[in-house]
Design a protein that fits this description.
Blueprint lengths: L11 E5 H11 L4 E4 L7 H13 L2 E4 L3 H13 L4 E6 H17 L5 E7 L13 H7 L3 E2 L4 H18 L3 E6 H4 L2 E5 L34 H19 L6 E3 L6 E5 L3 H11 L6 E5 L2 E3 L3 H9 L3 E5 L5 H12 L1 H4 L3 E3 L14 H12 L8 H14 L12 H16 L4 E3 L17 E3 L5 H10 L10 E6 H17 L4 E7 L28 H8 L2 E5 L4 H12 L6 E6 L14 E5 L14 H6 L4 E4 L4 E4 L10 H4 L5 E5 L2
Parallel strand pairs: 2-3, 2-4, 4-5, 5-7, 6-7, 10-11, 10-13, 13-14, 15-16, 15-17, 17-18, 18-20, 19-20
Antiparallel strand pairs: 1-8, 6-12, 9-11, 21-24, 22-23
Helix pairs in contact: 1-2, 1-6, 3-4, 9-13, 15-19, 16-17
Length: 648
């Protein structure tokens, strides 16, 4: 039995923030959970899947985030409690339906759980989701620690049912992926009855059809939607997760939320400012609890905002302060606008310490300069720099090798549009700097489709795009359909590595099993592309020459979209992990190293971590621990020094 469904009295467990969100949902009696994988959110659906059968849940990895919200909305319309989960970029994908859902409202409690990534630790941007709460006109909650991450979820479900609308709960990387002790509450019974009522009056919230918009009559739905926000604001005034610590009349008030509240508490404690600084930790960050805010703003002459990335909380609180100026008096504000805290990247206690030290003129020195210098010197000596690279035996390295060679052999200045996945490293040295654009999921195909239609303006460069198998279903299919319909002559390299590899091998519509391990129909991407009207070829990326030949052949077709499916399971996938096709060695008598015309092409350019340059012997060698035995490196050595022997 999973610890997540421990029903022992006074049970307490060490949980990641994402696990705490799952436990809180179980205590709230959730019935349906859907999402699309994206770090730092992915563990939430994975954890639900582990207890789905015991707790009578329906759990799925959806094709994309918009579909995940739609699946969860159906459960809500039928009176069940549901949750959809995604990372910050996914809210962009889901926003179309979310705008309509916020208008129609919900029935059973429904939460949008979004996990943001300040610092872009596992993202191509650090765009945040808080602004969507204002755009959508829905309430936003932000737990401040691991216990709150659990406790706030049942409260959020109850709020959703009180106002009959979706509620957004936001986490961040340092809350989702860090851990803390969490006290458990009781679990409810799992029996639930779903039924969709639709025969009542048009706008009846209980029995009418769920319709998002009545044309030219905003007062019929937008007005009630805004009333829901007013109700939420009133409820937020007494929210138990809004807390204040500090003196009754502080010299400085810190207004903060989420994981930043932990940094603030630590910084205030270290500087010995607990009798001079108050901390107002807000869990209800949109709409703001104005009476609560004004009470604490009135008590302090100076305000410091501690939040990550955009000054969202800072801007909203300043509006409240401006409108209540006569009531609370003039204030001095510090934060991102004043330059006391950065407007990009993650915060940490040191950054908050620096801001407080500057405001109070309290001297504070972190690690001594001599110590920091010694650490850097040791790191430079014993920890050689390593750039980002593909895993040993990654099929994407082989794919980019062949793509790069095909483009050069073609000689017409062709280029590749990049996409989101492990293969983003196609923009870097690890992918031989092959990709020349990189934007959102599926954008490679859309951009390439657009480039392909520029022939009438004199553009003669062949255009290619890459995408993964999960991305194909998520967002690339519409772009490919557009290219086929518009007869755009681009070539899509569909890198099929048998799962959503970047986030942990979650299944997608091309997988034979779902998140629960049940057998499901696997959609055949080759047949889909052919049925759509594309010219399709399939190749094993480990066969470098055949792959290069097929791509050069497709590049010759000047009209219409082409697809080259590069099919090889990821080296870390369950089907390949721990299995070697070849025993790979280096014949030192044939390795010429730096004296070879290739000048160490294996370790300097190809760059598989399983290949090592022996500086003493001046030859390359194989790291037998890291090497996965794919044997591709044998094909790139011009001297034939890398030898592969098939394992029986």
């Amino acid at each position: 039995m999973s610890y997540l469904i421990d029903e022992g009295k006074n049970a307490s467990h060490l949980l990641m923030g994402n696990e705490a969100i799952v436990r809180g949902s179980l205590e709230a009696g959730i019935n349906v959970a859907a999402g699309y994988p994206g770090t730092p959110s992915s563990e939430i659906i994975e954890c639900f899947s582990q207890v789905a059968k015991e707790r009578n849940l329906y759990v799925e990895w959806s094709t994309n985030e918009k579909v995940a919200v739609e699946v969860a909305a159906a459960a809500s319309f039928a009176g069940l409690r549901s949750l959809c989960v995604m990372k910050q970029n996914g809210v962009n994908v889901a926003s179309d339906f979310l705008l309509h859902l916020a208008s129609s409202g919900t029935r059973g409690g429904m939460l949008l759980v979004t996990c943001d990534d300040p610092g872009a630790l596992s993202s191509v941007n650090e765009g945040e989701s808080r602004l969507f709460a204002q755009l959508l006109e829905i309430p936003l909650l932000e737990p401040g620690d691991f216990q709150e991450a659990k406790d706030i979820i049942p409260w959020a479900f109850a709020l959703s049912e009180k106002i009959r609308n979706i509620v957004m709960v936001r986490s961040v990387t340092r809350l989702s992926h860090a851990s803390g002790n969490v006290r458990f509450g009781p679990l409810p019974a799992t029996a639930a009855k779903a039924e969709f009522h639709y025969s009542g009056p048009l706008l009846d919230p209980d029995t009418g059809p769920m319709i998002a918009m009545i044309v030219a009559a905003p007062e019929a739905q937008h007005g009630p939607q805004q009333e829901k926000m007013k109700r939420a604001a009133e409820i937020f005034e007494t929210c138990p997760f809004n807390t204040y610590t500090g003196p009754a009349a502080p010299e400085l008030l810190i207004v903060t939320s989420s994981a930043c509240s932990l940094y603030s508490r630590e910084a205030v404690s270290i500087l010995g400012l607990t009798e001079r600084v108050g901390i107002l930790k807000l869990a209800t960050t949109w709409p703001l609890p104005q009476r609560l805010l004004k009470k604490h703003l009135a008590a302090a002459p100076q305000i410091l905002f501690v939040e990550e990335v955009a000054p969202t909380l800072e801007d909203h609180v300043k509006v409240v302060a401006a409108e209540a100026g006569a009531e609370i008096g003039g204030k001095i504000f510090f934060g991102k606008k004043s330059g006391h805290l950065p407007s990009l990247g993650e915060l940490n206690p040191d950054l908050v310490l620096a801001a407080l030290s500057r405001i109070f003129a309290v001297p504070y020195e972190g690690a001594p300069a001599a110590f920091s210098g010694a650490v850097k010197a040791l790191a430079a000596r014993y920890a050689p720099p390593r750039g980002m690279t593909f895993c040993p035996g990654c099929p994407h390295r082989a794919s980019y090798w062949s793509i790069n060679n095909a483009v050069k052999l073609d000689g017409r200045g062709g280029f590749v549009c990049g996409d989101i996945g492990c293969y983003v490293m196609g923009t870097m040295a690890a992918g031989f700097n092959t990709c020349k654009t990189l934007h959102a999921m599926g954008s490679a195909s859309g951009i390439a489709s657009g480039f392909g239609k520029l022939k009438q303006f004199g553009m003669g460069q062949p255009v290619m795009a890459v995408c993964g198998d999960s991305t194909f279903f998520h967002a690339a299919m519409p772009a490919l359909a557009n290219a086929i319909h518009q007869r755009s002559p681009f070539t899509l390299m569909l890198m099929d590595n048998r799962g959503t590899a970047m986030t942990g091998f979650q299944p997608h519509p091309g997988s034979p099993t779902n998140v629960l391990g049940d057998t499901v129909p696997a959609l055949d991407m080759e047949k889909i592309c052919r049925a759509m009207g594309a010219k399709v070829e399939v190749s094993d990326p480990f066969n470098l020459e055949k792959t290069r030949q097929k791509l050069n052949h497709l590049m010759e077709y000047a009209d219409g979209a082409k697809v080259l499916i590069l099919r090889r399971a990821c080296a870390l996938s369950p089907e390949r992990r721990g299995k070697k096709d070849y025993e790979v060695t280096v014949d030192e008598s044939r390795c010429r190293g730096e004296d070879c015309g290739c000048n160490r092409i294996c370790t300097r350019i190809f760059g598989c971590p399983g290949l090592i340059w022996d500086g003493e012997k001046k030859v390359s060698r194989i790291d037998e621990i890291i090497c996965v035995g794919c044997g591709v490196c044998a094909d790139i050595c011009p001297a034939g020094a890398i030898v592969r022997k098939e394992i029986a």
